């Protein structure tokens, strides 16, 4: 039954995709420049979807296309004269003189953005927030991570004049991080936090992937980069010396049953990994047999009643709610758990409620649900939105504090910028001492922003960097460096 | 070897004032290494050179279409301006551009003192590429070297040369070109002769152009070879709109080498013609130069090409 269902599903998908293929026009066969005219070959049987695609690909006015399909032979649109002529059974040609549209110069910045959209560029190399990973080195001492010290070792290249390391940890700087000679190779020690890092060596000016690191991935520019993980946890299973394979799997890997193999050592199996801050469920498979981690007392049952081992990575943040001791149930909910209203039940204390919770560094909105009633955190002055849509705000491991000095008489100061979609009802700054402040956690990169003081947009008076905007009033510019 | 496409007669037909190219500045500090290899960073299809200018660190876009050093106003607005000029370009801006003197420009171990630079708004490039763009630099600071641009391996190699343009480092074999062209004029921009539909055309070689460009004023037989896949109507600097087409250039040849399937924009190049003071049929950008290496020598006035199989995307 299941097999039949699967076959039907496959057929449905195939038919669906054929239908979709039929609904796509081939842009290369629609438009051409011919004898000084711009010519579109249109099929009269095209569906509305295909006509829409035509309009979008070639920026054709909807009234122009509608006029073609209503049988008109001469159409005036946006100051241009278009003609329609039959070109075969069910086919017409819509055309206009090529030069007619060129009445002014395009702004180069507009042209740049247009081409950018057409070519779908991805921008610079930024390693995305990876949940987990592990190293795969050909030479064990090519990369060693202990404590917070990462040591990269490049064997060979003894005749090189200079070797630099460039990667996501130093903003891909080509000149900021020179390596030093060490024996028959080059070495560098860097202070790095746990995480995934892409890098390359620059040997006498020439980019080179790490020859003794098997782990590589393509950067957004298309070139290969080497990748290492600064690990922060080791899966460890003692004993089982006669087992052929031990693998670990968990919610960090989508519970892939193939798992990842642990390496057999003296009396134990181990696998050092990087896991992003958070809470994870996992299990071992010893020669295909599922088992929880015998060394980990923290186990929880899943919805089917099976036990899983649990692991928390990172320092927990203690959410507290004072009072409400008469309440039956208080739930913490927020953007960190997709606003799940059941998952994070708080523990009752003598004076209120508490819940230590581990989640990755970042900006989060949250609320408490006290016996079904939603409320903001009364002890947290930072919030976003207003009215029913006001949420408490917290920046875990904040790495920048926006500050506006003065404006003592202002009733409201909002922080709006590229980091929050220029939300004018977003980050509400808080008066502390003689200034307004708002702490945030931002990824490395460029941000533009402004303050809104009692409804009036202003540049950050303490920041000399600003750039032009479409209103002619400028936006302040902030760079968060790699590693901050 | 082929002759260069634009004759002095042709140039004189265009009524634009001759742009005064400043003298080629020499670095006050130069590393001992010869050749000097500069690793280029990539952001999208842009190639970047790490630089520090008057204490501000960031990147310069390697832009051989730039006449001179062009800086981003965001980081240099406090410099005293010494005048203004008009600037237009594929990656630049339109309108008033201030002139400043950058006290110290450092990159790849070289230091240049007191360089005249133009300042304009380059925020649109910076915001789309997510990297700090201090400005654009082309060949103007590098003309004293033989310059080898290797886009596939992301490096720019500068060879010191003698008075007649031969490499000083005799150990290094000269660049072996599959195709060689003569350069004309004394500017900092390289113009190349290519052909489409049997017509000889004048192209600007622009490492900051993320795609090729063909002038919408080109002959109809040239335009007929472009397979058009996109069109847009852009509002221009003045009133009215400008039509921009995008497609594939399939009939381009450089010498005897035919290069097909190059992404190409079709738009007006009048502004660029005005800037470069020459007739211009197109711009050869990433779609073109990903096919190989280019070596430019402003002393021998030669540009050579070595094609690689496959190229890079």
Strand segment count of chain B: 23
Helix content of chain B: 10-25%
Biggest interface goes to: A-B, 69 and 77 residues
The oligomeric status of these chains comes to: heterodimer
**N-to-C terminal Cα separation of chain B, in Å?**
29 Å
Shape of chain B: globular
- Tell me the strand percentage band of chain B: 35-45%
Which structural category do the helix and sheet elements of chain B fall into? mainly beta
Largest sheet of chain B: 9 strands, mixed
Walk me through the structure:
The complex is a heterodimer of chains A (484) and B (313). By secondary structure, chain A is mainly beta. Chain A has four domains: 7-97, no CATH class; 109-123 and 397-484, Immunoglobulin-like (Sandwich); 135-230, Immunoglobulin-like (Sandwich); 233-313, Immunoglobulins (Immunoglobulin-like). Chain A is 11% helix and 43% strand. In chain A, a hairpin with a 2-residue loop joins strand 1 (31-34) and strand 2. Chain B has helices at residues 8-13, 73-76, 123-129, 220-223, 270-276, 286-289, and strands spanning 36-39, 41-43, 46-53, 56-62, 70-72, 81-87, 95-107, 110-120, 133-137, 145-150, 155-160, 179-182, 191-196, 199-205, 212-215, 226-235, 241-249, 252-254, 257-259, 262-267, 282-284, 292-297, 302-307. Chain B is globular, with a radius of gyration of 19 Å. With 313 residues, chain B is mainly β. The model of chain B is unreliable at 1-20 and 90-94 (pLDDT under 50). Chains A and B meet through strand 1, helix 4, strand 39 and strand 41 of A and strand 1, strand 2, helix 2, helix 3 and strand 16 of B.
Fold blueprint:
The complex is a heterodimer of chains A (484) and B (313).
Chain A: H1 2-22, E1 31-34, E2 37-43, H2 48-58, H3 62-69, E3 74-77, E4 80-86, E5 91-97, H4 108-119, E6 132-133, E7 143-146, E8 149-155, E9 163-167, E10 180-181, E11 185-191, E12 195-203, E13 206-208, E14 216-218, E15 224-230, E16 233-238, E17 246-250, E18 260-261, E19 263-264, E20 268-275, E21 278-286, E22 289-291, E23 299-301, E24 307-313, E25 317-322, E26 330-334, E27 344-345, E28 347-348, E29 352-357, E30 362-370, E31 373-375, E32 383-384, E33 391-396, E34 400-405, E35 413-417, E36 427-428, E37 430-432, E38 435-440, E39 445-453, E40 456-458, E41 466-467, E42 475-480
Antiparallel strand pairs in A: 1-2, 2-5, 3-4, 4-5, 6-20, 7-8, 8-11, 9-12, 10-11, 12-13, 12-15, 14-15, 16-20, 17-18, 17-21, 19-20, 21-22, 21-24, 23-24, 25-29, 26-27, 26-30, 28-29, 30-31, 30-33, 32-33, 32-36, 34-38, 35-36, 35-39, 37-38, 39-40, 39-42, 41-42
Chain B: H1 8-13, E1 36-39, E2 41-43, E3 46-53, E4 56-62, E5 70-72, H2 73-76, E6 81-87, E7 95-107, E8 110-120, H3 123-129, E9 133-137, E10 145-150, E11 155-160, E12 179-182, E13 191-196, E14 199-205, E15 212-215, H4 220-223, E16 226-235, E17 241-249, E18 252-254, E19 257-259, E20 262-267, H5 270-276, E21 282-284, H6 286-289, E22 292-297, E23 302-307
Parallel strand pairs in B: 4-9, 5-8, 14-21, 15-20
Antiparallel strand pairs in B: 1-11, 2-3, 3-4, 3-7, 5-9, 6-7, 7-8, 10-11, 10-22, 12-23, 13-14, 13-18, 15-21, 16-17, 17-20, 18-19, 22-23
């Amino acid at each position: 039954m299941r097999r039949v269902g699967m076959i039907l599903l496959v057929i449905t998908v195939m038919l669906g995709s054929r239908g979709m293929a039929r609904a796509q026009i081939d842009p290369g066969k629609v438009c051409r420049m011919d004898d000084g005219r711009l010519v579109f070959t249109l099929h009269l049987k095209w569906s509305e979807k295909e006509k829409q695609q035509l309009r979008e690909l070639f920026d054709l006015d909807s009234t122009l296309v509608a006029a073609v399909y209503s049988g008109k032979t001469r159409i005036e649109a946006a100051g241009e004269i278009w003609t329609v002529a039959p070109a075969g059974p069910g086919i017409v040609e819509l055309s206009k003189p090529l030069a007619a549209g060129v009445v002014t110069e395009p702004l180069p910045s507009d042209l740049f953005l247009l081409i950018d959209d057409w070519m779908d560029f991805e921008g610079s190399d930024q390693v995305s927030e990876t949940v987990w990973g592990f190293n795969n080195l050909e030479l064990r001492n090519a990369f060693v991570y202990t404590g917070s010290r990462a040591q990269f070792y490049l064997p060979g290249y003894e005749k090189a004049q200079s070797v630099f390391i460039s990667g996501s940890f130093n903003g891909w700087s080509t000149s900021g991080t020179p390596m030093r000679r060490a024996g028959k190779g080059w070495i560098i020690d860097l202070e790095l936090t746990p995480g995934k890092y892409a890098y390359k060596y620059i040997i006498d000016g020439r980019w080179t992937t790490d020859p003794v690191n098997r782990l590589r991935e393509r950067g957004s520019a298309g070139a290969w980069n080497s990748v290492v993980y600064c690990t922060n946890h080791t899966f460890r299973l003692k004993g089982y010396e006669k087992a052929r394979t031990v693998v670990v799997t968990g919610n960090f890997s989508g519970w892939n049953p193939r798992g990842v193999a642990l390496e057999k050592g003296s009396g134990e199996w181990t696998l050092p990994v990087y896991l992003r801050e958070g809470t994870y469920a996992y299990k071992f498979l010893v020669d295909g047999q599922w088992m929880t981690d015998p060394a980990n007392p923290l186990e929880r049952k899943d919805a089917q009643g099976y036990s899983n081992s649990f692991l928390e990575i990172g320092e927990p943040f203690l959410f507290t709610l004072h009072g409400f001791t008469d309440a039956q149930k208080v739930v913490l909910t927020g953007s960190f758990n997709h606003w799940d209203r059941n998952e994070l039940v708080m523990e009752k204390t003598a004076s209120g409620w508490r819940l230590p919770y581990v989640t990755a560094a970042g900006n989060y909105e949250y609320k408490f649900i006290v016996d079904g009633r939603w409320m903001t955190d009364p002890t947290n002055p930072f919030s976003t939105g207003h009215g029913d849509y006001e949420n408490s705000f917290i920046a875990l491991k904040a790495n920048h504090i926006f500050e506006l000095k003065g404006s003592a008489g202002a009733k409201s100061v909002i922080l709006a910028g590229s980091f929050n979609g220029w939300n004018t009802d977003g980050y509400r700054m808080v008066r502390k001492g003689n200034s307004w402040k708002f702490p945030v956690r931002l990824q490395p990169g460029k941000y533009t922003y402004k303050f809104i003081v009692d409804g009036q947009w202003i540049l950050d008076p303490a920041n000399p960097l600003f750039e032009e905007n479409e209103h002619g009033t400028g936006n302040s510019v902030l760079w968060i460096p790699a590693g901050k | 070897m082929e002759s260069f496409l634009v004759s002095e007669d042709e140039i004189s037909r265009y009524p634009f004032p001759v742009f005064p190219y400043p003298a080629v500045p020499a670095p006050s500090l130069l590393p001992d290494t010869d050749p000097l290899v500069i690793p280029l960073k990539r952001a999208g299809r842009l190639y970047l050179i790490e630089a520090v200018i008057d204490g501000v660190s960031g990147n310069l876009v390697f832009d051989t279409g730039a006449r001179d050093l062009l800086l981003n106003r965001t980081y240099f607005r406090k410099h005293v301006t010494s005048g203004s000029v008009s600037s237009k370009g594929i990656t630049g801006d339109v309108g008033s551009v201030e002139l400043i003197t950058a006290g110290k420009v450092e990159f790849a171990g070289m230091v240049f003192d007191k360089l005249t630079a133009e300042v304009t708004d380059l925020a649109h490039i910076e915001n789309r590429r997510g990297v700090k763009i201090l400005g654009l630099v082309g060949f103007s600071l590098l003309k004293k070297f033989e310059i080898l641009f290797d886009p596939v391996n992301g490096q720019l190699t500068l060879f010191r040369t003698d008075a007649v343009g031969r490499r000083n480092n005799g150990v290094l074999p000269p660049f072996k070109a599959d195709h060689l062209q003569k350069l004309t004029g004394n500017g900092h921009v390289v113009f190349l002769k290519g052909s489409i539909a049997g017509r000889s055309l004048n192209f600007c070689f622009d490492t900051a152009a993320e795609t090729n460009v063909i002038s919408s004023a080109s002959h109809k037989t040239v335009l007929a070879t472009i397979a058009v896949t996109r069109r847009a109507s852009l509002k221009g600097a003045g009133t009215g709109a400008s039509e921009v087409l995008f497609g594939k250039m399939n009939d381009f040849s450089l010498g005897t080498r035919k290069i097909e399937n190059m992404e190409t924009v079709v738009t007006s190049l009048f502004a660029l013609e005005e800037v470069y003071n020459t007739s211009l049929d197109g711009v050869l950008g990433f779609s073109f130069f990903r096919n190989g290496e280019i070596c430019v020598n402003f002393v021998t006035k030669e540009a050579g090409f070595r094609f690689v199989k496959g190229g890079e995307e």
